Amino acid sequence: MGVAISAVVVSGSVAHAVDRVRFDQCSELQARFPTGVAKSAVAAQSAVSLGYERPAVRKKVFRKNRKTLGPPTAGSLCLSKIEVKEFAFQYNLDSSLPAGWVAEFETIINNLGAVLPISERIHSVPDVKMPFQIFAWNSAVPNPFPQIPGAGGASISGNDFLGKHMILEIPESEFTNNSLHRYSVIAHEYFHIYQIALSEDIMQPTWITEGGAKVVEELYTQQYYGQSEFDGGLFPVSATVLSNPAAFEKYERDGGLVGSPADINYNSSAFMVLALVDMLEARGISEARAFEMVLDDFVSELPDHANWRGAFQAVFSMNVQDFYTALGSGSYPSTGVTDDWFEGSAIDVGAVLPSKSLTLNAIFATP
Ligand SMILES: [Zn+2]
């Protein structure tokens, strides 16, 4: 033993000089190698595929302990099973919210959890912690949560302490006006978590992430309340979306047009999603399946490509530029409607609106 130690010292590493290679029990080995040891990289990979945490590759440690601590599992010793984490929310709902809203909030989260379960890939997103926190309050009161200083509006945000979390500041006017948005916003933000999980947080391009969340939010109200903004033709969709669709790849704050006056309520981004679905349907794909390809397949495909354009090509068998060109040459006449709150030209998107009977279940329940 003494000889072995001095031999390691010669190699120049003081830390290695005190390394033990023999252990009497797995608990001792795991104090040094928490996920166990493998005899080779191939064995470590086998352990991972069997549902274990990746062990350290230590040929010598493996060899010296295989009799005492064995028999080995696929070439590894003292493995530890990956703990299956359940996705769970923790609600932080302020007393400023009406009881009716709180009850409906719980119903909506449960409905969405059944039809759109959050993928277990969420646990590989670095700044996601369990339980996933939701903070909600009525804008009639100042932000009551000291954990999220300065927070407002509705979003999935991150901070060092909580990781990603959902913020729902519901405008007081939505209660007094009985606006369905006080409920649809829950579906919108929930769908962003669904996207974050499937894409491992690659949220690109913005017209698909925001347009997709907008479409899901309207499909939710159509299904559960019998009405949606599709009924009013999704007005206004800016004509800019036809002349400059590439500008919708980014938020306004990042130099693009998503969320800008050319994308009021993300209507223009949602139109791009609906137009893409329409082009897929033109190939004979069913409506529900076409929505699934855009809202689900594309998002799942993102981690497997160097950039979103590659995922787009793979899922839709279409080049992004060809999609933009087709959009520009589509026939979307001007609505001719001029509202004092909307400047510019709005287009009629009636041709690409989803059927009234389409449900989230039909889209996402397909295995
Ligand atoms: Zn959003």
Topology summary:
Elements: H1 2-10, H2 14-17, H3 26-32, E1 37-38, H4 41-49, E2 56-57, H5 59-69, E3 76-77, E4 89-93, H6 99-115, E5 132-138, E6 154-159, E7 163-170, H7 172-176, H8 181-198, H9 206-225, H10 240-243, H11 267-281, H12 287-301, H13 308-316, H14 320-329, H15 360-364
Helix pairs in contact: 6-8, 8-9, 9-11, 11-12, 12-13
This protein binds zinc ion (ZN).
Zinc ion binds at residues 188, 192, 210, 213.
- The overall pLDDT, averaged over residues, is 92
Succession of helices and strands: HHHEHEHEEHEEEHHHHHHHHH
What overall geometry do the principal axes of the alpha carbons give? globular
Strand content: 5-15%
* Arrangement of strands in the largest sheet: 4-5-7-6
Largest sheet: 4 strands, mixed
How many structural domains does the protein architecture include? 3
Helix content: 40-55%
What is the subunit arrangement here?
single chain
What can you tell me about this protein's structure?
With about 375 residues, the protein is α/β, with parallel strands linked by helices. The protein has 3 domains: about 80 residues, no CATH class; about 120 residues, Hect, E3 ligase catalytic fold (2-Layer Sandwich), CATH 3.30.2410; about 170 residues, no CATH class. The protein is about 45% helix and about 10% strand. It is built from 15 helices and 7 strands. It has a 4-stranded mixed sheet. The protein has a 3-stranded mixed sheet with strand order 2-1-3. Strand 4, helix 6 and strand 5 form a beta-alpha-beta unit. The longest helix is centred in the middle third of the chain and has 20 residues. It is globular and about 80 Å long. The N terminus is likely disordered. Bound molecules: zinc ion. The site of zinc ion (ZN) has 4 residues, from helix 8 and helix 9.
